[in-house]
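Section 3.1: Structural characterization of target chains.
Under the original work plan, the team committed to producing a structural model for every single-chain target entering the pipeline before any wet-lab resources were allocated. The record below documents one such target. The sequence was received from the expression subgroup and is listed exactly as submitted; it comprises 149 residues.
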Amino acid sequence: MLEYARSVHGMTHAFHAEYGGDPATALIAPIACAVPGDGPTLNGSYPIHLRPESVIAQIYGATEIAEAFTCSYGVNPAARARLLAGELQEVGWSDDGETRAIALPGHRFFLATLFLPQLGSTPARPHPLIIAFLEASARFAATRSLAGR
């Protein structure tokens, strides 16, 4: 997402505050949220609201989900409007309105989440986002194989 912000939105100074720089101007910055504790500690599952027509809502088959995440960094509210001024869409948000998922509609699979789908995945019951990513990868690989013949 940082590279997209740099190249498409001209946010040449798009950076993650965890790795230095002024958090006030970072694209990814420390955020305030309802999750207790300090640092990147897994703090349970919390509700996330999904844009009804989004790919993520289609994948889940729902517009309200609960997912586990660490609450340390996220989209800087001061940079949010500029980031979303182009093609990127906010497709998931918390009860307090903080961004939890962003997608690029029309792309074969561009989905950024603050939550951690891998934590809800097991070999016997893979997470729906992981399945969707693997299916998109297989479709892309199939088109590449056909084009190479």
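Residues 34-41 have pLDDT under 50 and may be disordered.
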